[in-house]
User: Fold this.
Amino acid sequence: MGLLGSMKLDIVKAVLEGCRWIWVGDGYATTNEVVLNGPLHLAPYIRVIPADLAAFSDLFLELGIQEFTAF
Assistant:
């Protein structure tokens, strides 16, 4: 189940959907605009979550942020 209960996680996802809530160093982004641990910063197309927030990677994954995958 992870960090949040299933029902609470669904509520948090619904509230944050489409919102710019993830700090990426020079502003905020949506879950569709960021990845975890990417080797390249391709802003404004895709942004990497800053290393300072790596401690929260499990939470970010639960909230729908994808890990970087090479083509």
Summary: The mean pLDDT is 86. The helical segments are 6-16, 57-62. The radius of gyration is 12 Å. The CA atoms of residues 33 and 46 lie 5 Å apart.
